Structures are given as C-alpha cells and as structure tokens.
Recover the amino acids of this structure.
C-alpha cells in the first residue's frame, strides 16, 4: 500500500482492508513515501512524521504492517525500486500487489520505468468519488490498463488535502482519521502553516 500519507486517514484504511479481504492477502504493508518522486520536498511533511502517523493508524489491525523501505532509502521514492526490494525480501514465492489511489495510478505513464513496474506486480486502484477510471485506457493503452484491478469502496470522500486544509483553518478532523493520528497532528503542530506551493507536481519523472 503506497502513498505519501500526509496524513493517513480512514479512506486509506478502508481501501487497505477491502483489498486484503477481496484479494485474500496475507498482509498489507503500508509503505510511506520517503521523498515523493513527483512532489517538491517542501510540499510534504517530514517522512518520519508521516511514518509515525501510519504506525499509530494501523496498530490495531493484525494484518497491517508498515515498512521503512522508502523512508530509509535516499533519493526519490521510485515505486519500481520499492517493489524490487520488497520482492527480494519476500522471496520468489510471494505474489505482490501494489495498492494505491486510482488518481495516482492514472499518472503511472509518467512514473520511472513504468513498463517494468507493470510487469513486476499487480496493481490495485482505490478510487475516490469522481475518479474517472475510463481514463486509464487512454493513459496506458487497453492491454496495460487491463492489468490494473479496481476496488469497489463505500463512498468515502476523505482526502489528506482536505484534512490539512481543515487543520490550517482550525476546523475539526474528528472521525476522518484515527484518534491517535489526530492527537499526533496536534502534538507536533502539523499542517498549521502554509508550506509553499502545495503538491506542485513535476510533469514527468520518467527520466
Ligand atoms: P498523490 O498524487 O498524492 O495522490 C493521488 C490520489 O491518490 C489522491 O487522491 C490521494 O488521496 C490518493 N491516494 C494516494 N495513496 C493512496 C492510497 N494508498 N489509498 C487510497 N488513495 C490514495 O499520490 P501519492 O500518495 O504521492 O503516491 C501514491 C503512490 O504512488 C506512492 O506509493 C508513490 O510512491 C507512488 N508514485 C510513484 C512514482 C514513481 O515511482 N515515479 C510517482 C508517483 C507516485 P490522499 O491525498 O487522500 O492520499
């Protein structure tokens, strides 16, 4: 389960649990991005804070674990490097799925070495209300788009962007993310101030 998780919220947890149950997964490994390949470093909260919030959020689920693979790896967090490292750790018998947001997967054609990535693992897309998955065929072509499976989720319109905006505005985030995450955000004074041009995306990180 890959994501920036800035912060993690119930939308992520619901998607992870749904994927676990539908694809009969033995384990869901949350892998917070160290340095998101497509975002400016100032646009994201330090990796250690995002990692800590994931640890707090998944504590009660025995099938959920968290990995420091990307937090500890220097340089941009390319998914292809992560999948290869993970497969090496798990051994040749393991079947690996990459679960992430459908809107992130729609951009996969711009990801580093995306051709290999689509061959190395299966993709599971977690849509949010309004995600247009018909665009996947346009982005990837029919054959490669068919390699991406889609989750059917209850309509939960929670986003990390909205949570950050609420905190900055002093509005409540109760019931959007687990309580320990909410307390961590308060304790560490996260999301109170602007971090510059947020989520500024590079047009491509493929090279
Ligand atoms: P993003 O662009 O911040 O997010 C795009 C959309 O997907 C947002 O609506 C986001 O909602 C949602 N989303 C992200 N992760 C999700 C998850 N695990 N479950 C459900 N929805 C999710 O995407 P990102 O979080 O930075 O990146 C997603 C994954 O793609 C990461 O693992 C990242 O490393 C990978 N990625 C790799 C490359 C590369 O290899 N070059 C490039 C880009 C992304 P929220 O904001 O609410 O999470």
């Amino acid at each position: 389960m890959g994501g920036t998780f800035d912060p993690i919220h119930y939308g992520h947890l619901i998607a992870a649990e749904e994927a676990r149950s539908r694809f009969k997964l033995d384990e869901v490994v949350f892998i917070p991005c160290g340095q998101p390949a497509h975002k400016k470093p100032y646009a994201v909260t330090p990796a250690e804070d995002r990692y800590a919030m994931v640890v707090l959020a998944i504590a009660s689920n025995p099938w959920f674990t968290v990995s420091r693979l990307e937090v500890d790896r220097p340089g941009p967090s390319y998914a292809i490097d992560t999948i290869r490292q993970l497969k090496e750790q798990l051994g040749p018998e393991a079947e690996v799925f990459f679960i992430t947001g459908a809107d992130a997967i729609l951009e996969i054609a711009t990801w580093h070495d995306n051709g290999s990535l689509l061959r190395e693992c299966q993709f599971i897309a977690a849509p949010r209300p309004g995600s247009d998955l018909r665009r996947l065929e346009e982005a990837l072509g029919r054959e490669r788009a068919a390699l991406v499976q889609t989750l059917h989720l209850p309509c939960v319109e929670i986003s990390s962007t909205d949570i950050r905006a609420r905190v900055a505005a002093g509005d409540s985030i109760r019931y959007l993310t687990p309580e320990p995450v909410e307390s961590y955000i308060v304790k560490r004074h996260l999301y109170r101030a602007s971090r510059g041009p947020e989520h500024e995306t590079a047009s491509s990180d493929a090279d």
User: Anything to note?
Assistant: The first strand starts at residue 2 and ends at 3.
